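Researcher: For the record, we're logging two predictions in this thread. I'll number them. Prediction 1 follows.
Model: Prediction 1, sequence and structure:
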Amino acid sequence: MSKEDNIYRWLFDLAKHLVGQTPGRSWAAIFTSLLGQACLMVAMLLPIKVVMLLGLDAIPSYMPEPLRSMTLEQLTLLLSGLTLVFYGVYLAGEKLTGRWIDSAATEVIGKTGKVVLFENQGDIASDTYKRMVRAVAALLLTLGVISLLGVLYLNMCLALIAFFALSIWPAVRIFHYAQRINKPQLIIQSLNNLGNIGFLVCFAVVVVDHLYFSAPSVLFTIAALILARQATSKIAAGVGDLTHISRQREKVSALLYQEHLLLQSKGNQSDKIAPLLAPPARDRWLTQVLRQCEWLTSEQENIKVHWLQSTTPDVYIFGVVQVATGRSCLVKIFDTTRKALALHEASLLSSPCAEQLPAPKLEHASILDGFHIHVLATPPGGSPLDDRGQTEALSACALRALCYCPPGGEIQDAYLRSHPLLWQKLFGDLFQPLYLAADEEQTTHLNDICQHLEPIREKLRELPLTFVNPAINYRTLIAHDQNRAQVSQWGQWKIECFGAQFPANAQGIASIADIIDQAQGQRSDIAQIDSSLVKLACWLSGIEQAINSQRYLDALDLLPACINCLRAVKILPPPKPKQAP
């Protein structure tokens, strides 16, 4: 049995399981949902009839005898009142359905005897129950509408049945295609479009019958057309609910079936990218891409490909070496979930600033079967680290080179239009959580910072800007000289005030002094800067990151150093000398 067939079978078994576990509440929920949807349908139909009556001078003759004995005003008020009554019944039915569903879902989860599997599992169970009930009610309502149409308007009934039958094949194909490319919204859009087409088919039947053949009265025609519209929309919504349930199959099975386990995924690879990573297919598309960018110029050139460890999930890196010349490059392929990361990296590495960055040259960027591809030319003799002992020294080299590369031009303008800098993040509300864990002395420090936020922000605005790459580590460093290194991953680059990129510890502070001392001839704006202001940015950045991670005690530990820097840059006065007893 294919995977697709299994989905349909699983949905059918799930419906039987839910009803079998709590039959009373399940059927009660289906009944109240069906009643509510039927009442809503009538509530939508009656206002149209009221509007038609408002344009008449007398009650139409086709009205039943009890209604014709009323005045036009009385009938209008009666139908308007019934509209409110039916809508009220719909709301009450939905409320009651929700209670039945919540109660039944809680009981089914309890019967499995399992511990908590994941967050909001109760919400997922209730949502699954609700969608399944809605889908069953929609199916029953559609069958009821078709039966009623068979009495009111046989031709429209036959047209609707034919349309539903012919729609099964394209709906199934669309479902499989959307599942394969992981675009569930495509299913909903397509179902809505099919529903609209079904309504237009019914409308065409009405026009043809009234012009060329026999047709029921206008009243029955209007009622039949509205019923047909409800049938097509309800069945589309029901199929959409089943599609949503199928996307959470593993969680729902583990949650509602006693014998099912929630197995961890073997990886985040999409079904489509996994075959491209295997050696036979990988070598083919790698060769194709490298010829496109003319890194390979002859079909006779042989290459050796090896897998490199990526520090970012769903980003895969291959090292490629020309056997004859020894030239090397990196080829990255980004899964569809990392499209933004690929574009962010390409925007920087294709900018004029890239020439000064400790980064491989971006030779080529393209899209292969929906996946972004980057080809990065590594320097002669460059290779990923094979000795972890080199990490600290080469990380420092890469960080120093990054600091000496000034941002500017369009890349800086584009970044600053969409991302805040450190000084823009410092507001009083940021520090409020720290008061929960602060002692008396720390509270005093917090008050000093909060009362001087405006001058602090003004001071930080004076700092030059610099690029930041949080992905500098053993796996991303490329050594090509004893004193030089490049970084292979740039998907998370940022621009920040100088100082904010350093770790808020003694090692980071020492790096600041070293980089400022060696900045002469590299970046004059850094060489002339007050080191105390840079350290202030470092400590405040550390506090901000700790607060956002809810590490309040770690943030409070940084307050004394931050206060000392505020005094050094003369935002706070020096401490008062202690008086002798």
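Researcher: Logged. Prediction 2.
Model: Prediction 2, sequence and structure:
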Amino acid sequence: MGEDVGGVRPNTASGAAVSVAAVRRERDSGRWACGFRCLGSVVVFKACDEDNKGYLSREDFKVAVVTLFGYKPSKIEANSVMSSINPNTSGILLGEFLNIVRKKKEAQLYRNEIRHIFTAFDRHYRGYLTLEDFQKAFKQVAPKLPERIILEVFRYYQWKKKGSGSRLR
């Protein structure tokens, strides 16, 4: 009871079944303008909460992450989440789940924003920035910033990347 059968997670309390593949088909068909976000974290929690326990087990959590974010969390990520929850509970409660999802969405937005900014400065679509690209970018966004500071920042990130030559990735 409550087993994964071909990617379907039964929810015995309501008699409904949630298929990750079906959710993806709905999203990809364009019927949901905003993709998985319209599904809602609470709905995903309830759909993945087998037997209406009121919490998500480790496996339930993995299915919820696949549903919301489109990837299966690693063992390290799952262990980190499970070790961070209240030890007096048998799993992840709704409030804890919503907090985890909020943090993941914020991190995802931040990464997307960084990728977008980097792409805007990578005018030649090379996947890296040369010192010249870096200088031009800073001249656009901070024209009064001294050249010395721009060079120091570029060299710092070069050093952080362990000497990637004259470019940043």
